[in-house]
Amino acid sequence: MARRTNSAPLALLLSVCLCPAPSLAAPASSALGSVQPGPTADGGRILVPQPVWPKGVPDIPGWPGKIATPVTEELRDDGKTGRNLWNVTVPSYQAFLPPPGKATGTGVVIAPGGGFRLLAIEGEGNLVAQWLAAHGVAAFVLKYRLIQTPPGETNEQMRARVNRDLKPGVGGDPGVVDGLETLRLVRAHAAEYGVDPQRIGAVGFSAGGHVAGMMALAPKLADRPNFTGLIYGMPFYAPMPEMPAANLPFPPGTPSEPWLQPPAKPAPGHLPPLFMAAAQDDVVAGQGFRAFYQKLYDTGYRPELHLYQRGGHGFGARALGGTSDRWLDEFLWWIEAEGFAKAK
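The structure corresponding to this sequence follows.
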C-alpha cells in the first residue's frame, strides 16, 4: 500500500494538459472550485464537471434556505482550510478516474462539508478525490446546493440566521436530493467511468456526512450507496431519523446470552456497510456523532468506528501530525475488507 502524501499542494500533485478530457454531457455552467480537466501524472484522468440536473434544477417548495435576493456562486479562501464555495445553486460533480492499471472498479461520491452554508471543496473534496483515484478508486466530487447568503452577510451573521430560522438538518435537504441523483447518474454511466454500478459508495464530511448518511437511509434500497463513509458528520435531524432493523429476530427459544446466540441474519432493507471516523476533541459534531453511532449499535449495526485521540473538526485531507492523518488509508482498507475493492 503506497503511503499517503497530503502535504503537497494540489497543483504540484497533478499534471494536466491544456486540452480537456472528453465529457459525458455538456459541461456544468460553473467550474468554480473544480480542478483543471486532463490526464494526471500517474495516468489517471480528471473530467470536466457535469451538471447533476441538466434539464433544470428541481425546486423544493418552501425550503427556508432559499432567499428572495439573487445570489452568485463564490469561491473564497479562508486562509486556513483552503478555498470554500458559497451560494451553490446549480449542483454539479467532477470525476477523478484512476490509472487503468490501478483501477479497482470501485467508485465513491464525495460530499464536502461546511455547515450547509459553504463547501470545503479542496480539503474535503478535490484532495480526497485525488488520493482515492491514485489508489484505484474513482471519485466524484459533489457540489450540492447550499443555504443562500445575501450580499454583505458575514459568516457569523449567517450562522446566527441559520440557527434561528432553520431546524437541524433542514439546510441539507437539497444536498441529499442532489447526492442521490449524482449516485444515479454515476451508476447510469458506470461503464464510461470504468466502475461497477454495484460497487459505488458515498463519503461525506460534517454537513456532507448528513448528505451521505441520508443517502444510506434512502427509502428505496436501489437508491442507496453500496457503502457509506461518515467523517465527523451524520444525519443532523433532531430527533434522529428512524433506522431499518439491522437483523431478523432470533427464533423462539434462542438463549438470551449473546455468547450462546447464533450469528445474526441481516434483515431485508438493512443499511449498507458504514465506516465512521472522528476525533475525540471534536466539539462541533463529536457529541452527535457518537450518539448516532450508539443508535446504530443499539439497532444491531456494527459500523467500522475510528475515534482518534485528536484532530478537531474538519481535518479532512489536512496533515496534522496525528493518527487522524491515516483515516484515508483505513477507509481504503475497510473498502477492500468489505469486498468492494481488491487489495493491491
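The radius of gyration is 20 Å.
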